[in-house]
Each structure stands twice: as structure tokens, then as C-alpha cells.
């Protein structure tokens, strides 16, 4: 039995920060003791610090500074750093988010140390094991004690993998909570002025390994983006991963195409809010455009977020089909097939998750007899 249990959140990459903020706020409102471990997987100020500031996240209690590397090297550094910090803090629960290498490492470390875990954004599947994220998702969900699902199809995926339904909670999408909270601050005008865009424009974000790591794939992608830029000015806040390879493939400033550094959370969503079209391979951006009602073309053969297609503005495209799809999207505007937004994407996922965690902590702190597990 533990007095005053501690919850640790393991965060490492840009989308983790956005998903965690509503959970951290929800637990704070319930008075739960908590802390953030920043793994340092993302470390540039524009990939990390700006999110802590924009989302009002508290300072991490530790930053492991693991940085970049191959999957094995990065994951190995994460495992070593996380084992030390989890052993030192002895949390009652570790919460992990999404599908990045920091998520995978934290779940493995905690499983071996017998520290209970919760996974936020459980059950998403692209069924594409060539994506490093899909491997991370499957392993994480196999090992997590509490699984928080953001959309209903996740429940079926987890059931098919034999996850005990008692461990799963359909809670809605905390990334959408963050968007709701930011809405009053989303003003396109200042960021448009700073970046020199006006009138109709498209925003592009590109960073998936399948799109940006291989020179041939990068060339096809860049040609397709140039086909969009023939129709409408395109502004690309570029993730550092693909910067050099995409530039080598021709993604450089030219009339109707502007390449800039990654934007902070509020600036980026402000720019998207004012856009006529988004071209992306991001997971989170598919969801945010659905909520903002901005047409989104996702340059991927699959998505682990099909609800953004059935209940949102998202369409999957290939590089070859992108220019024509952009022309159609610019003519048609945003249309959602079902006319309804995804269920429980209502801005209250963080408080729901916090309530489940608080109840779980209370139950864990009862003696086995009081829990009714032993006579
Ligand atoms: C990671 C996640 C991906 C997620 C993305 C969000 C994994 C396997 N992938 O991909 O699922 O969609 O984050 O953005 O965890 N770099 C910098 N500065 C930084 C961070 C990265 O320059 O602050 C560069 C480095 O060259 C690095 C490369 O980006 O090698 C890739 O970074 P890494 O964290 O390994 O993967 P991402 O592509 O960012
Ligand atoms: N984002 C941002 N600035 C940018 C690009 C993206 O703030 O220049 C935000 C975006 O709004 C979303 C999150 O970063 O909240 C998504 O991260 P990313 O696309 O890197 O990861 P993914 O969702 O693909 O894992």
C-alpha cells in the first residue's frame, strides 16, 4: 500500500506533449501527485520547449537527453535512462502516449520493473508493420495495464489481439482537448503576416520515413507538392527529419512555395485554421484538420485514424494523385461523409482519463481484502 501515490508521464516527441497536457491538467484538478519525465527524443526548442510554453505543461522532473539515433541506439539509450529514473522515483503508475520510441521504451522498462502502466491512444492500427510506429503500438498495447482508446474502432483491434476488455476505456481524444483549449488563441492573421502569406493557401507537413528517407520517394513527393503549388501558394513548416533530403529533391523556396522552420503549437494551428487545404503525413494533423473543418490530403497508403476519413475532412492520396485531389479539395471545400464528428471528441477526454486513473490508484491503495480479491 502506498501513501500519496505518484503518477509519472513519459514524454519525448512533439505529439506526446499535445496529448499529455489535458491528462496532466485533469490529474492536477483531482490533486493527484505527478511529474513529467522528458526523454529528450525531441530537443530543438521548436520541437519541444515551445510546446511546454504553449500548452502550459509543468517543467519535467527529469530530462534524459537521449537525442537522436538509429532505432536501436535511440531505444537502447531510452531503456537505460528510463530504468534509472523509474527506479529512483518508484511511481505507482507510468502514463505513456501515442506510438513513438519513447513510448515503447517506457512500456518495456516498466513491464520489467513491474511498474503499472497506462497507454493513452491505445488500439490504433495501420496494419502496416513497415511503419516503426505500428510496431510500437502493438508492443505497447500488449504490455499496458490500462488502455485509453480515442476512437471506437480501437476497441475491436484490441479485442482481436486478446486484450482483456476490463483494461480498456473509451475516453475520447486528448489531442482534441488541447485543440479545444487553444481555439480562443488561434488567430491566423499574425502568423500569416509574419510568414508573408495572404489569401488562399495550403499548409504542408511531411516527416514519415516512407516519404522522406528514400531519395526516390522524396523526389516523387516533392514533384507532387510542386503540382499543388501550381494551384495555390504552399507553406511548409518542415520537420527536421526530412529537411536535407527534401531540399535535395527540390523542396526549396520558390514562387508559391515557402519552406520554414517547424512552428510552435499555437502558430501552427492558427496557420492551419486559415488554410484552404492541408497536405500532410502526420497522424495528429489528420485529427486536427477534421476538428477545424479544413480539407486534408494525407500522403500515405493507409491511416491508423480512419475515423478522420469516415467522420472528417481527411482523404488518403498517393504522390501521383495529390495534384488532382488538391484541385478537387480546393473546389469542393471541406465535406465530412457522415456529417458528424467522431464520438467523444468533445474536449473532455483528459478529465475522463484522470477520473479512471484516480479510481485505479484508489483501488490499488486498498488492501487486497478490501478490494475483495482475497477473502
Ligand atoms: C518521431 C516518431 C514519429 C512521430 C514524430 C513526431 C519514432 C520512431 N518516430 O519521428 O512517430 O510522428 O516523432 O514528430 O519515435 N531531429 C532534430 N531535432 C529534434 C528532433 C529530431 O533535428 O528536436 C532530427 C534528427 O536528425 C533525427 C530526426 O529528426 O535523427 C528524427 O528524429 P526521431 O525522433 O528519431 O524521429 P522522428 O522522425 O522525429
Ligand atoms: N505541429 C506543430 N508545428 C508544426 C507541425 C505540427 O505544432 O510545425 C503539431 C500539430 O498541430 C500536432 C502535432 O504537432 O499537434 C503533430 O506532431 P507530428 O506531426 O510531428 O507527429 P505525428 O502526429 O505524426 O506523430
From TrEMBL:
EC number: 5.1.3.14
InterPro entries, alphabetized: UDP_GlcNAc_Epimerase_2_dom, WecB-like
Keywords, in A-Z order: Isomerase
Catalytic EC class: isomerase
UniProt cross-references to SUPFAM superfamilies, sorted A to Z: UDP-Glycosyltransferase/glycogen phosphorylase (SSF53756)
Molecular function, one GO term: UDP-N-acetylglucosamine 2-epimerase activity
Domain UDP-N-acetylglucosamine 2-epimerase intervals: 33-358
NCBIfam families: wecB
Family: Belongs to the UDP-N-acetylglucosamine 2-epimerase family.
Name under which the protein is recorded: UDP-N-acetylglucosamine 2-epimerase (Non-hydrolyzing)
Amino acid at each position: 500500500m502506498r501513501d500519496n501515490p505518484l503518477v509519472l508521464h513519459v514524454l519525448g516527441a512533439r505529439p506526446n506533449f499535445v496529448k499529455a497536457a489535458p491528462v496532466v491538467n485533469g490529474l492536477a484538478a483531482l490533486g493527484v501527485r505527478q511529474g513529467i519525465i522528458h526523454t529528450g527524443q525531441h530537443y530543438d526548442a521548436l520541437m519541444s520547449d515551445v510546446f511546454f510554453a504553449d500548452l502550459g505543461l509543468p517543467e519535467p522532473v527529469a530530462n534524459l537527453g537521449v537525442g537522436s539515433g538509429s532505432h536501436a541506439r535511440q531505444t537502447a539509450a531510452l531503456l537505460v535512462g528510463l530504468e534509472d529514473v523509474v527506479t529512483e522515483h518508484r511511481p505507482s503508475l507510468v502514463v505513456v502516449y501515442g506510438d513513438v520510441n519513447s513510448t515503447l521504451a517506457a512500456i518495456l522498462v516498466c513491464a520489467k520493473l513491474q511498474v503499472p502502466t497506462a497507454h493513452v491512444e491505445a488500439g490504433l492500427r495501420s496494419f502496416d508493420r513497415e511503419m516503426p510506429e505500428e510496431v510500437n503500438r502493438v508492443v505497447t498495447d500488449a504490455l499496458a495495464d490500462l488502455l485509453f482508446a480515442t476512437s471506437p474502432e480501437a476497441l475491436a483491434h484490441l479485442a482481436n489481439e486478446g486484450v482483456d476488455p476490463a483494461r480498456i476505456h473509451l475516453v475520447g481524444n486528448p489531442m482534441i482537448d488541447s485543440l479545444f483549449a487553444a481555439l480562443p488563441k488561434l488567430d491566423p492573421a499574425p502568423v500569416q503576416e509574419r510568414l508573408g502569406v495572404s489569401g488562399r493557401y495550403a499548409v504542408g507537413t511531411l516527416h514519415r520515413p516512407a516519404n522522406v528517407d528514400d531519395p526516390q520517394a522524396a523526389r516523387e513527393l516533392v514533384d507532387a507538392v510542386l503540382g499543388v503549388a501550381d494551384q495555390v501558394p504552399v507553406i511548409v513548416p518542415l520537420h527536421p527529419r526530412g529537411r536535407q533530403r527534401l531540399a535535395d529533391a527540390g523542396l526549396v523556396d520558390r514562387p508559391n512555395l515557402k519552406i520554414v522552420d517547424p512552428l510552435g503549437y499555437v502558430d501552427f494551428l492558427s496557420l492551419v485554421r486559415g488554410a484552404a487545404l492541408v497536405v500532410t503525413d502526420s497522424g495528429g494533423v489528420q485529427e486536427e484538420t477534421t476538428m477545424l473543418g479544413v480539407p486534408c490530403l494525407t500522403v500515405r497508403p493507409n491511416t491508423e485514424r480512419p475515423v478522420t476519413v469516415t467522420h472528417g475532412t481527411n482523404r488518403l492520396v498517393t504522390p501521383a494523385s495529390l495534384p488532382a485531389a488538391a484541385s478537387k479539395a480546393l473546389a469542393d471545400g471541406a465535406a465530412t461523409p457522415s456529417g458528424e464528428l467522431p464520438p467523444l471528441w468533445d474536449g473532455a477526454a483528459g478529465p475522463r482519463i484522470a477520473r479512471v486513473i484516480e479510481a485505479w490508484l484508489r483501488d490499488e491503495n486498498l488492501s487486497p481484502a478490501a478490494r475483495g480479491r482475497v477473502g
